[in-house]
Amino acid sequence: MAIARNLEDKDVIYAGLIGKLAGILLLGIGLAGCAHIFSKDILNQVDSEIRFEELLKDPGAYKGKVVLLGGIIVKTENKKEGTLLEIYQTEMDSYGKPVNTDVSQGRFLALYEGFLDSEIYSKGRKITVAGVVDGEEVIKLGEIDYHYPYLSVQEIYLWEEEQLYVYHYYHGYSHDSVWYDPYYRYYPYWFYYVDPKSEDQEQTTEDPAP
Questions:
Q1: Which residue from 1, 20, 25, 153 could staple onto 112, CB 3.0 to 4.6 Å apart?
Q2: If you write DSSP's letter for every residue of the chain in order, what string do you get?
Q3: What is the pTM (predicted TM-score) of this model?
């Protein structure tokens, strides 16, 4: 009885240790997954209380403040002093990635002191900028004078282009529209994967749920 009790106690201890190790591992994975795109140093400088609509109304009131803004590139212009990005603002997720890109409160300018290739930092790309507010710049936008908040870039992140995948779904029971496997089972549906950048079509099949 004593031997059995000792073995049970050891099992409990081992189970506890394994549980703690698993918890530590999951915590580490979670923290790694939540890592931000920008350095801790710049994030500590960002004034998260400044909302973009307030900045847009009076950029001069926030001069010298560090802000974090995300959006979509409208224009990239290489100048002697660096690369000037015109960006329309969007919301960001917890990682700083622009989301809800069809909704914007306005535009801003961001000057990067260096060269950014306009073929890479091109129109339509998602971008996130941490920068110091330098005031505003008034530029003609159509027939109006648009007051742009003007930032000096401290850190910048260009998000990878997202691939568009289109799936064409077909359904039918004719001999030409079903797929047979070696066991003579038939599947009355399939879908095609289509890469818009390629004219080729890759046919894949999906095994229906039993």
A1: 153
A2: -HHHHHHHHHHHHHHHHHHHHHHHHHHHHHHHHT--SS-HHHHHHB-TT--HHHHHH-GGGGTT-EEEEEEEEEEEEEETTEEEEEEEEEEE-TTS-EE-TT--S-EEEEEESS---TTTS-TT-EEEEEEEEEEEEEEEETTEEEEEEEEEEEEEEEPPPPPP-EEEEEE--SGGG-EE-TT--EESEEEEEE-TT-S-EEEE--PPP-
A3: 0.64
